[in-house]
Amino acid sequence: MKNHRLSLKLFAIILLMAGLNGCSTSGIEAVGKPGDAEIKKHLLIHNDALAKKITISDMRSREVGGLLEVNLKLTNLTSSDKSVAYRFSWFDADDFEVEAGSDGWTPVNLHGAQSVTVQGVAPNGLVKSYRLNVKGQ
After folding, report:
1. Which of these, 13, 18, 107, 110, has the minimum number of CB atoms within 10 Å of its CB?
2. What average pLDDT does range 88-100 have in this prediction?
């Protein structure tokens, strides 16, 4: 019950942030935890309704062989199953996208309240940051 209340509060914060920030891109940036700007800048959901139901957490990154490697948890905030697809966008130190569109969409089924770990490795050593793009199937 406590987790359900937390999910409802999180959902309300996501709605509030989306309403206050407007939408300057083709998707809505969702907030994983109240005030956690780091999660907000790493997640772009390309569907307004889905943005209220999916979030990321436990973001980890490291450099392996000169390449950025990321590992994060994608979570379904609802009790119903969600079929989504994701792909990474990679950015250099100046926030320019590197090798745009080179990664394909990876499908994943999220059961109610399920979390899955997604991983990605940057295409080259110029990459300094990333964004996880999520869309409904």
Report:
1. 107
2. 95
User: Distance (Å, rounded) from C-alpha 109 to C-alpha 102?
Assistant: 23
Q: What is the pLDDT of residues 43-58, one digit of tens each?
A: 888 888 888 899 888 8
> How many whole angstroms separate alpha carbon 28 and alpha carbon 124?
27
Instruction: Judge if pTM exceeds 0.90.
Output: no
Percent of the chain with pLDDT over 90: 54
What 3-state DSSP class applies to 19? Answer: helix
Residue with tokens 């999916």: 54
Return the number of other C-beta atoms located less than 10 Å from residue 69's C-beta: 15
Secondary structure, 3-state, 46-104: CCHHHHCCEEEEEEEEEEECCEEEEEEEEEECCCCCEEEEEEEEEECCCCCEECCCCCC
Alpha-carbon Rg for the chain in angstroms: 15
* Cβ neighbour number for residue 105 with a 10 Å cutoff: 13
All domains in the chain, ordered by first residue: 2-136 (2.60.40.3230)
